[in-house]
Design a protein that fits this description.
Elements (H helix, E strand, L loop, with lengths): L1 H88 L4 H54 L6 H7 L4 E4 L6 E4 L7 E4 L3 H4 L2 E8 L6 H4 L8 E13 L2 E7 L3
Antiparallel strand pairs: 1-4, 2-3, 4-5, 5-6
């Protein structure tokens, strides 16, 4: 009798365990799915941040070069001031006046070259600032496409899951001229430069894109989405402008 009771208890235990097996697998599947989602999010964030920081590093070098060139601009303004004073002082001395006018013309040529060179650097940095968010978005989408290889049938993916939704801002690279309308001005970042030059990238996609079919079956019917964001800007530190990741807002 006692042996029968023990056998029955063991049988009930086995049945209970077998009944819990599906739940156990479901829990393990959800944990695995969560790990996969976190891993994918980390990879996408890394790709996004890398793209933005590399571009911002290049832009910071250009900006620091522009600022370093301001010394030349100030030197040319001083030369222009002296040359103009010499022209006025020699107005009654024709031979000296001709020489003074030639010197003034030479300074004006140097100023024009300086301004053209600075404008070229500004245009380069401005172009990089504008196109970087779009390039970073493309890189993140390419990395995401690599992770969607778990779903082999491309037609299945396109039919059941919409393409990732991306959003970028329109950062600006704006400098102020001092003195204004001068032939060789200093170029300085505006007071709101860090905020207006900030680059923002956001990618949102259906979790079904990165999960295997057996795990997708465990998800609720309402589709879950993952949103990956990253921002980067330039900040002044020790008289130099350097690239920095900025908080997502």
């Amino acid at each position: 009798m006692k042996r029968n009771i023990i056998t029955n208890e063991a049988g009930f235990g086995l049945v209970s365990f077998l009944a819990l097996v599906p739940l156990l697998f479901a829990v393990l599947g959800l944990v695995g799915g969560l790990a996969l989602v976190l891993k994918t999010d980390a990879k996408l964030k890394h790709e996004c941040r890398t793209q933005l920081l590399e571009s911002q590093r290049s832009i910071s070098k250009t900006l620091n070069q522009i600022l370093a060139n301001n010394k030349q601009g100030a030197f040319l303004r001083a030369m222009r001031f002296r040359a103009e004073a010499e022209v006025r002082a020699t107005a009654s001395i024709p031979p000296a006046h001709v020489i003074a006018q030639a010197d003034l013309a030479a300074v004006k040529v140097q100023q024009a070259r300086y301004k053209l060179s600075q404008k070229a650097l500004i245009l380069l940095a401005r172009r990089q600032t504008v196109i970087t968010p779009r390039l970073a978005t493309s890189a993140v989408k390419a990395r995401l496409a690599d992770d969607t290889s778990l779903i082999a049938d491309e037609r299945f993916k396109s039919a059941y899951f919409p393409s990732p939704f991306s959003r970028t801002n329109q950062p600006r690279f704006e400098l102020e001229e001092t003195p204004k309308n001068d032939d060789s001005p200093d170029y300085e970042p505006r007071s709101d430069f860090t905020a207006t030059q900030e680059m923002k990238v956001s990618i949102e996609f259906d979790l079904g894109l990165i999960l295997p079919s057996w795990l997708r079956a465990l998800l609720p019917q309402e589709r879950l989405k993952l949103k990956t964001e990253c921002n980067a800007t330039l900040e002044k530190e020790n008289e130099k402008w350097i690239e920095r990741l900025s908080a997502v807002r």
